[in-house]
């Protein structure tokens, strides 16, 4: 089925176009109104297409600001090919500063390929999946840890089954040049086959992502990585000239995220005390966290240990926690890269 | 008027007592139920009384966990005098991990001296003010920055008008030994005369506070400062013996928080990009922040500069911001200490 | 201060008048509208005044229906004196079938004497306290256990400090003729000095109440007790003639509700299993209840015992429970009546 | 008690100042933030002070736009004296387009003189009452019917007990020049002594108001009346020169709003069908409205008649109605003006 | 799949039947309850069937009241054939006076053909689509502008691809006799193929609609048009006799609604000032509206111009507006009718 | 499609395993967290599998507690075969004590067979339907009346179309031994083909259910029936040895629930007064209930009569009622058992 969303821009036209994707949403307060999702297209002749997306989760900011800055810097004269920029992909969530949309309470990165007749977030996902992804050669969806997690700054990709495409992923990730890069295997990992990136992969695109910070704040370091990485990707694709290349200070360190044992979850409701820091290397059996119970402060805390060893690449931010919340997420060095 | 809350502990009895302050709250779901606010009293003979409080704001955790640990460590044998510990002062807010109570949406640290016939939060404040504060010689209310702010770890006091009491405040703050300590002048500063600390000051107590981290998370460094500082305060008061003293690694640096020019506020709704870091020394006129508008990404950001110079002791966490939100808060070195 | 509410009835006029008390409430949906609280006055010449109220808690129904039936049965010809009937005292709560008002989330029976400039519920309480209670010789506020409690059917009074008035209370309670009648001492008991009944007592009225069932349902037995009891009260006062008297099947059993030990509270959050039944006589130390934890079903339940002995006059209905919820409430035989 | 709000403008300084009144509101999302209530002061030397307010109810727009336009047009050079302009008095309500504040659900025009330690709306009212009203000679609070009512465009005043002040009110109302002007007697009328206008009257000011349209929309006719009327008031006071006077097309027709019989209320919940139009003259006994019951469409509607005669100056907009909603409001010609 | 809804009426039976369509909705408050959607069927022997629907949007009232009146007037004796009347199609929305259902927040006119296992609104749409529409020869779904829009009173149809059916549409619209009638082309227009009317068109019915007013109020003029038009439609179909025909005062003016350029949308969040009136003829480039910013009243407003010319047939009501809200909607004269 | 839920237990392994089914739910507060649905498997070699479920509706407690107790009592040594226990099937609803899930407002027993990509409740239903039901020979889903209904304690089954399976149902129901057992015919009855039991029946399992009390409370009698019945079922299947059999005090009485005439619904909004009691035998035409209108107490109540005769097996609890609420539900003796 065809999307009901209407873009104000013409993707086939040369030049720089700014406008909105109109998602008609007929409500009590606005019977004929639309939700205005900002979009920018810069095109100059033939060449590859890069599709840059942020605001898939509304409380992740490095990508939103990097793309907002890129919109103002990019001109048709500077490029060859096409760049499509979607800085607030889940616009209602991004305006609210929330992971999920306040309209339908849906997490956009768990519902791809979307639904043209679904609720607002499902319609946006469907538009991206069916109208924007097919236009692109390379797709990067810029994430951070959001309100509940903090990451060491990293880029990422889900390993393609196609070895040639996997090599293209690795090359693009080297160009992006984040301090860390992790590779997910198969359908493993958070979000499974329902993410924007999975949609891009299904269409055979070079599909990349990032986790550039978190805690619902903006980390200046993560923003700098994003800005350099995006330009380098455009150089890597030949859309920008080589003079725009900025060498990353250190080569990216490739990591591997293996099974559920690399994730540490809260066993009880309570207050989470981390016993290790982001970026630390830990051993199996090492104490990871305590859960405290100040509502009955005379009870002892519960202590949890790591089941596997590795690099602490992600930790939970809010101390108030529920059984089942993810507290840490490890990674190990990727063999063979 | 007398509080309607009923404590399960007897403050005059020797020994270690644990229990709840019962706040009867007759609701649709529980007509005769009470809200169980945990409290612990440890007493051994005559001597001074320390009153330690945390969870005044429910999303500030260093204090809650430090007191939960202290409850288990303290025994009557170890002390001389009395320690009263309230780890979740605004219990409904603390259970929800929210700054304000989910029951009445009230910020407990803006309503002292409370009201015995007001809503739940006002009743708690009144109980603390009228029943607990009078028992104490020294009061410390442990705060952190909460969900929206992050602080360099510091202790604080509002300067008493009574020079002798001010000297006692300074001595106690030195004993607490946080890396930074700031002094607020007069009725200035956030919360004015409506905080728990102001209530303690009105009663002539040595009234202290802290800001030990923030972002709604637990910072292990802040927790360590709290745990050392609380024991040192008990030694300082003579409640614990000198053998429990732990020398702070560096003497506290005293700071002064002056007028509104030391606070930087967001001039527009948008995304906040900090241009300086916590702990940095800044100059008047130096760029402080940009506000970006990704909903219209082709518009330039707004840039704001510092009006005064000083140490960046506090910054806003959430990047999504509204006109009027506080972005930074400066301090300068305190003269004459 | 004077109430802002306007009655459509004239309390000094003979005859039967029906109408509404108008509480002007200026909202987004109705700028000049009023909340229509139904009231009926039946008057015939000189004589005592009875004030009958129900719907103070909106989810207690025996009283609401008994008064709705009485409104249709009473005529000026049948009486001497005056009867004022308020079947839905907290009208917004009663229309919603909720203990507390959906407008301001206030429990009307915890805020007497009310406030003429407070929120809606406080304005109603103030009107009743300042305008209706002064008109009455005898006041009965008809309650049941509400959504969270179930009672053995009983009438009740808070013992007046004035021995003569206390005798009048006892006489009126005998006339009402519930199977059980309990007497509260002093300022003890749920609601303290903030109930409608306390307001009536402060004005020297014969102030009575009931607890006629509960569980948010209508118990036909409780309704029958209310209907007989209300007519008997009118006969007892001389407002109705002796021919309307209906002898209760058994004399009322007078009970005494003593201190906090007669109340059993949940020690943990979980599922409540009662181990005794309403109306049962229990001994100190007898098991009262278990709290189960099906979210971790391999953990054992917590068991609680009665601290005092007595008659189980009230038990909690919802099995899902929180620490601090009242599970049972005992009473013992009243000496000296 | 003194207000805690801090204005960014200096009311004593000559020139044109724009800025915000800062109302510090410490929330989960912004611990140290303020609510920015826009204010403009234009002053040139000595002379009278006019205080113009709109947005007291957030869904009334003629005043908000008229003052927004006036802010840009007024310069110190054009005036003698001072004009204080508050275009969004209840800023949170006005931003939300709601009659009452979304923060505390309070109707600001029913709580004067406010409370410096109350909820947000009460603090604003207190600031206006204690800080702004004392500065003024003449106060006009610009209202329209809001979301639930539509008015014939009119100005209004509550008749002062002081005959000299009443004459000043009448003169100012003639200068304002609305098509209709109504005078309220004594403490009668919607809002009683709790409105902004009542606050101004208590301080002996020339206190005026308007009702310039309604239905939550902007009526261009009402806006034109406001813009002409405000300038004429400034000319009338001598703040603007005579050359800015614009003669109203017709002299205002003075009306009198008498007691409760001039208001028609819905007797049942249902759909409201008006049988007369705004501006029509009606007779006692004339059918006013029907209430329909489409949920049981085979039942007949209820018909209501006018109790008094007069001019229909106000009618309810939403057809969906509840018992107690005001459907119409009449007025009659004022004698003796 | 088959609908789970159960009608209390038998559509095949002669006579007048009133009752409810039962939509079983198992909730916390009512485990086995149904939602009672009122329906009336009047039948007398063989003949065509008219299906009249209103309350598809709950805040549109001319249709709801016209059908409520028609229910009481129609008798089997008066007709030949069958009339099916559904005055509150989206019953929960209509009881709430909201465009969309308060149960699932769904706009019923954007989800046809519905879903028998979807949420409540989807189940109603499916019942209408699969059970009621097949019974009808002519379908009219009575709309008005709702809470956010006001229309010049008009009837409408989406032009059928079948020329013979299109001629039947035109004839029926002439019989209905609204002052204006507009024809939508193809799948264009608000609601696309997801409206009740589109469902009727898919089944080859004569599918009509109306827009009879708006603003969430009842316009007596729109009600009169509906009442005359519905009877004329029954005469036109031969269900009522010719003696019930009432000639419209003027023949309907046929209009054409073309593409997106005929719609004017808000470019910013702010207050909407219309610069033209409903029913006015406008030219391309003519100023349409201003958007004001009273939160920063010293900033100039934004002005928007019409891109196309035509008749202003619809305008937005609420002045508070968001980027993307529809402000006006134009139409031009339809050629060839 | 395959479920995305991950069990911590291995259903093929011998022994007693306790753990959680992990339902990953990525929210603002917990980006990578899971919902922990408790599950216990006890297995000992070959033999039949019983699947016991409770908490399908979160406010029905006999089953939740019976299974929580069974978890602790059952050991591999005691059994032959396998028992799978799911005490809180709709975990979020059960933790909230609500019939429907607070996350998606979905009634789990109206959406089988669920959806692996639907909202949380749909994912749980799909997991049960696709992963747990296929493992079982016999399935019992333990219900009670919930917050809105009270039942005489009974077991139940929907009559299988397969006569052999129907005989197995009857035998299992006799073993369960509830005082009453009712048989539903065909697709009739509440929930139709969308219940857990219908899912089990579609897979050819012996599918049973219960209704053991209600009112949102725990009835000790219902709990005792459940505990005895579950063990007897395990004996009946040969999983437990014959020594665990407990003979029911009386043989079950088989009942038949026929069509819609056996259900009594509220005809109006008001207060429900039951005129018969649970367990009573009633006659057609006998008065069943009155609906009272205390908001207009001078109006007479509406009285409703039974249309059919039978045993009153279920009645509504909340007195506040809406048109369409089910008030009673009858049954008659089942022929031929």
Automatic annotation (TrEMBL), chains A, B, C, D, E, F:
Q: What Gene Ontology molecular function terms does this protein carry? A: hydrolase activity, acting on carbon-nitrogen (but not peptide) bonds, in linear amides; hydrolase activity, acting on ester bonds; metal ion binding
Q: Where does the Succinylglutamate desuccinylase/Aspartoacylase catalytic domain lie?
A: 47-237
Q: Does the keyword Magnesium apply?
A: no
- Could you tell me the superkingdom of the organism this chain comes from? Bacteria
What InterPro entries does the record tag this protein with?
AstE_AspA_cat, N-alpha-Ac-DABA-like, N-alpha-Ac-DABA_deacetylase
The alphabetical list of record keywords is: Hydrolase, Metal-binding, Zinc
Query: Where are the coiled-coil regions?
Result: none
Q: Which cofactor does it need?
A: Zn(2+)
Give the matching Pfam families.
Answer: AstE_AspA_cat
Entry-linked PANTHER family: BLL3975 PROTEIN
What name has this protein been given in UniProt? Succinylglutamate desuccinylase/Aspartoacylase catalytic domain-containing protein
